[in-house]
Specification:
The chain has about 270 residues and is α/β, with parallel strands linked by helices. Helix content is about 45%, strand content about 15%. It has an 8-stranded parallel beta sheet with strand order 2-1-8-7-6-5-4-3. β7, α10 (about 225-230) and β8 (about 235-240) form a beta-alpha-beta unit. The two termini are about 30 Å apart.
């Protein structure tokens, strides 16, 4: 299946829009795992096993693995995901943004080394920085569009003089992802849950592409407002929660606690849809 087909199938199978982000910080690990970077796989694998039937996608953040020399553990973790939840897609959160042969190597890293189904990208350098990833049939790419951080206003909320209608930069990115850049239906957009009005605007400009929406949970994004603004029957949304799920408990019950929080969040999202 293509990445988009996998998303839709996982949404139906698990009745979910929830993505669990895997941002393993050994300093925040529970109990005997605390501070031990060699246990990154063990910690994340337990979270995956506890929440496998609740999610539409997984989103490992590469920096949390690379910073601790745990790239091999990430490879092992993705292989484990394939066994535990074979129908659930893996989105590698890498936010790459380069061109030419460098972009080609980043694509190899994402899709061949880590076996991801999709990757997050920065579109700042234009279509040249995205095209190498689209050469992988069936793989997906989420472009940073309207991010959840306050500093996103510095560039994303600026108007583009000389472009028809003088759209805001994030609106222009959304139009490109909906239109000329989306040659094989492989693109999606990253839009932060902290800006539901902007989610609604992006959805109006890009009505059919999937949206990856971080910011629910620890960042304070409103789950109900997020779903109402972004979800459409023919355009899935992938609502990410990381820290609120991963660090739901500092005790030996951390995996069970992660499941409870994930289940509660999934139910909130599903209720908002109806």
């Amino acid at each position: 299946m293509t990445f988009i087909e996998m998303l839709r199938a996982a949404e139906r199978q698990n009745d979910s829009m929830l993505c669990v982000g895997l941002d393993p910080d050994p300093a925040r690990f529970p109990g005997a795992l605390k501070g031990d970077a060699s246990k990154i796989y063990d910690f994340c694998a337990a979270i995956v096993e506890a929440t496998a039937d609740l999610v539409i996608a997984w989103k490992p953040q590469i920096a949390y693995f690379a910073a601790h020399r745990a790239e091999a553990q990430l490879e092992q973790l993705v292989a484990h995901m394939r066994k535990v939840s074979p129908g659930v897609p893996v989105i590698l959160d890498a936010k790459r943004g380069d061109i030419g042969s460098t972009a080609e190597q980043y694509a190899v890293e994402a899709f061949e080394r880590y076996d991801a189904d999709a990757v997050t990208l920065s579109p700042f350098m234009g279509f040249d920085s995205i095209e190498p990833y689209l050469k992988y049939p069936g793989k997906g790419a989420f472009l940073l569009c309207r991010t959840s951080n306050p500093g996103g206003d510095d560039l994303q909320a600026q108007r583009l003089a000389g472009v028809a209608g003088e759209p805001l930069l994030y609106e222009h990115i959304a139009r490109q992802a909906q239109g000329p850049w989306n040659r094989n239906g492989q693109l999606g957009l990253v839009v932060g849950a902290t800006y539901p009005a902007e989610i609604e605007r992006v959805r109006a400009v890009a009505p059919t592409v999937p949206l990856l929406i971080p910011g629910v949970g620890a960042q304070g994004g409103d789950a109900v407002a997020t779903v109402k603004a972004g979800w459409r029957p023919d355009a899935p949304i992938v609502v990410n929660s990381s820290r609120a799920v991963l660090y739901a408990s500092q005790g030996a019950d951390y995996a069970a606690a992660a499941r409870r929080v994930a289940q509660q969040t999934r139910e909130q999202l599903q209720a908002a849809r109806t």
